Each structure stands twice: as C-alpha cells, then as structure tokens.
Amino acid sequence: MKYFKLIALCSIFFFANNASAQVVGGVVDSTKKFTKGIDSTLVAWMNSIVYLESVYQRSERQMPVRDTLTGTGFLIEDDHKIYMVTAKHVIIAALNDENAQSANDSVFIKAKPREDKRGLNLTHLFNADPNKMPVVFSSDEDDIAIISFQKKENEGILSYLLNNGYKPIPIEQIDTVIENHKSDWIIMPSYSAIKGNGGREIVKAISLGQVKSVNKKLPVFTIDNIVHQGNNGAPIISKLDNKIIGVFHNETNISTNADILKQPFYSAKSATIVKSSYILPLLRKLQQNENTLGFN
Known about the structure:
Blueprint: E1 3-5, E2 12-16, E3 19-24, E4 27-29, H1 40-46, E5 49-60, E6 63-78, E7 81-86, H2 88-91, E8 92-94, E9 102-103, E10 106-110, E11 120-121, E12 135-137, E13 145-148, H3 155-163, E14 169-170, E15 185-196, E16 199-214, E17 220-228, E18 235-238, E19 244-251, H4 257-262, E20 267-275, H5 279-290
Parallel strand pairs: 6-14
Antiparallel strand pairs: 1-4, 2-3, 2-16, 3-4, 5-6, 5-10, 6-7, 7-13, 8-9, 10-11, 12-13, 15-16, 15-18, 16-17, 17-20, 18-19, 19-20
C-alpha cells in the first residue's frame, strides 16, 4: 500500500477517487477511510472537480517532443446546462494572442485517474469560426477557459462523469466581489501530481490556506497555500460563505507551461489566483456561441 509524504500549511485531506484517506503524523495512509466529520459542502466540492491531462507536441533541437500537463477543472451548472471551468494554460499549448490560439493535441478527462489508463478525449474544441467553438478563453493574463458540454460530440463525456458520481456546483456559488474576502481562509479541492515510489502519483485532495493580498486593479490575487503541479484550474473557495472566489493560476514563481514542465513535482507555499468575477462574463459569451447556427 502506498504512502505519500505531506507538507501542510494548515491541514490537507487526501482522497483516493471519491473515498477519503486519513492524515496521520504528516503521512497520508490511503488504507484508512473516513467520512464522519467531513463537512457535506467539502464533499460536494470534491465531487465537482475533474482531473485533466493535456498533451501537446513541440520541437526541441528539431526533434518532436510530447509534453503532458496535468490540471484540474470543475463543473458548474446554469439553467440545467453543465460546463467545466479550468485554467486557460492547461488546454492551450502556447499562451498566444487572444485571436491566435493553438490547441493542445489532446485533452483527456479521467474520472478515476488511478484506474483510467487513457480516459476520454475532449474533441472538437476548436473551430475556424470562434463563434462555433464549445470553449471560450479569457485573455492570457486572466487565464480562464470554460468548456460547454452542449456540443453533441462531448455529451458522452458528460454522461461518463455523471455516471461516475461527479456533480456540478450551481453558478450561484460563484462570488463576483473578491474584495469582500481579504484575509479569508480558503479551501482548494484539486488533483496534485506528486512523486511517488512508482513515479507520478495523482492525489485528490482538499487543502486549507489563506488569502494573502488583493489588489482591486489586478485580475489576480495571491494565497498562502501548499501547491503542486496539477492544481492549475482548481476552484478556490472561501470558508466564510462556501463560494468560489477564484481559479488557481500558477505557483507564484512559475509563469509559463515550459516552467511547469521543468519542475514536474514542484511544491510551493503560495500561488496566484484569477478572480472569480471573470467566470460569468465568459460563460455568457459561451452561451451566445451555443445559440449560433452550426454550433451543433
């Protein structure tokens, strides 16, 4: 049975798929399950997050190299329609000009990362006509992507997630005024890529941290929290009112996908977060696409 070392800012609960594992003496023992004492709202958040693997090809010394980024998305629901929010850089090979995006070769969703060897590939994300795309992006600085499951080609992926116990969070849980949450304690449900005995281990976790600084003029704020690769795209939730206040952008010293790939098992104590106020305007833009002739 595998054990994982845990360095916690405050406390971290690790989950094996939808079951939880107990934290004992700084070591996570995946054999000890517990459900009592875990707030039902935390369970709801854990059921909303999705593990992503984004694969793309680049050239290095004139040789093709395939890179894999791990990330987290989360499901939201608006008027009975379900969407997935994540960080833009997770599904874009290079963060380019807003009108010149380049897609990763494959974006895989795995309902059970430890069991699904390949998962399901999100297809038809990109179209020559941006109004027909089932995905919208913010600017590179804002770093948010939202995917619609209303595209017929991806309806099977949504069924796959729902049949495996995933549940969306209503958009009413998205807070648009981050300034109300200065110094709040936050929770972050996410998937972390951690170096284990057999190589990379994917761990589902809830971590506890705190909002560090907020600048009203900037699209991002910072948190103090233990972070790892794979956290990118995770929701940041205020413990004060259980609402989303941001989307995980990157560890504070990492700015590009190339930086992430150079440090595949990095661990840091702080991160930058995109304010949640950017989610709803993007969602409305995506919903306009859904009404475009030729979307399906």
